[in-house]
Amino acid sequence: MRFPIKTAAFLVLGAAGAVVYAPAQHYWKERHRPQYTEEAASRGPIAYVVNSTGTVQPVLSVHIGSFVSGPIEKLYVDFNQSVKKGELLAKIDPRIYEAGVLHDRAFLVTREADRDRAKAVLQQAINDEKRAQALMAKNKDYVSAAEMDQYRFNRLSLEAQLKVADATVKQAEASLETSKANLAYTEIRSPVDGIVIDRKIDPGQTLAAQFQTPELFIVAPDMKKQMNVFASVDEADIGLIRQAQQKKQPVHFTVDAYPDDLFEGTIWQIRMSSTTTQNVVTYPVVVAAPNPDLKLMPGMTANITFQILEKKNVLRIPNAALRFYPKSEAVRPEDRSILEGLAPDPDKEKQTTEAVPSALEKAAANRKRDHRHIWVQDGEFLRAVAVVSGINDSKCSEVVSGEIADGQMVITGTKTAPQ
In angstroms, rounded to a whole number, what is the distance separating the alpha carbons of residues 227 and 125? Predict the structure, then answer.
C-alpha cells in the first residue's frame, strides 16, 4: 500500500525533528546551567585583626598656670619650642610684689626691734628682782612681801611679752617669705623638659589669678620617645584585645597626614572606664608608639589595626566560599539535607514572639559556629565539604580541618546568567 504524500512528509519531518531535538536540548541545558565563580584554596600567612579609630595624644601634658596676678611683661618661648626644666617661659610685672617684699622686710625689722626692747626690759626686771632678793636675804625688813610679789609678777609679765614679741617676729618672717615666694612666682618656669604644644597668653595680657588659676602653657615631655593613641573599642572585642596584649601582639595604624607611613605600637593599657553611646558600650585602649621623627602630633586621628593572632603557613579559603549557599536543585541529592535549615519556615514567620535562647544555648552555638560547609563542583551538581574554620582576615579564612587540598577550586558565587 502506498502512503499518501502528506503522511510521508510528516514522517520525514518527525525524523528530522528527532535528530535535531537531542543536540538542541543539550545546547539549551548547557546554556542555562548555573555558572559559578571559583577560587583556589592556597597556603600562606593569615592574621586576625580588630580595627578601630583613635586620637594621638602625648603621654603627659603639663598644664602650666600662674599663682599670681598681673600683666605679662615678657614672653620667652613660642609654640613648638623645646624647653628645659627650670627654663624661664614668661615673666609677670614684678613691681607690686617687689614692693611687698620691701614692706614685709621693713615690718620684720620693726618686730625684731620690739623683741630686743622686750628683752632689755625683761633683763632689767630680772636684775631688780635679784637685788630685792639679796636685800631680803640680809634683812627681811628691807623689802616687804608685797614688794617682792611686785618684782616677781613684773618679771613674769615681761617674759610673756617677750614670747609675744618672738611670735610677732616669726609672723613677720613668714610674711616676708610669702612675699618672696609671690615675687618668685612672677617668673613662670617649666617644671619639666618638653615641647610647648600650646601657648595661651600674649605679651601685655593681664592675668587675674584670684578667681581661677589661669592656664598659660601646655608642655608635653618626651614626645620623641613615646606618643599614646587613645582608641575606643567595642565591648565585644575587649576580650580579643586583652588576649593580644598578653601575647604582646603588635598594633599598626596610619594617620591622614602621612598616608604612606605605617606606624607600629603596642597595647599599653586597657582601661575599665566604659562609655555608653546609644546603647553601645566601648572601652578606652591606650596604644604606645615611638615618635622619633615627631610625625605624630597631638590630636591626629589614627586608623588602628590590632593584630590578635598571626599564623604563617596555613591552608586558606576565600571568605566568600563560607558565605555561599547554592539552590537546592543545584546540589547533589545526598547533600540537600544540609540546606533544609536554610529554607524559611512559614509557621515561624506567623509567630509574634520568639523564645530567647538561654546562655547555655548561646555558648553551645558559639562553639559550633566554626563548623561550616563549602561547595565544590562535582559533575553536574555541587558537593558539600565540611570544614572547621579558624582565624580570618578581610579576604581569607583558615581551614583547621576538612577535605580541602591546596590548589583545589571552591565555589565563591554565581555568575550572571547569559542573556
Answer: 73
Q: Where are the domains of the chain?
A: 33-44+315-414, 94-185
For the domain covering 33-44+315-414, report its CATH number.
2.40.420.20
Residue of 349, 385, 387, 394 whose CA lies nearest to 371: 387
Grid-cell match 637685788, residue found: 131
For residue 72 the three cell numbers come to 605679662
User: Each residue of 241-292: pLDDT tens digit?
Assistant: 999 999 999 999 999 999 999 999 999 999 999 999 999 999 999 999 999 9
Reported pTM: 0.69
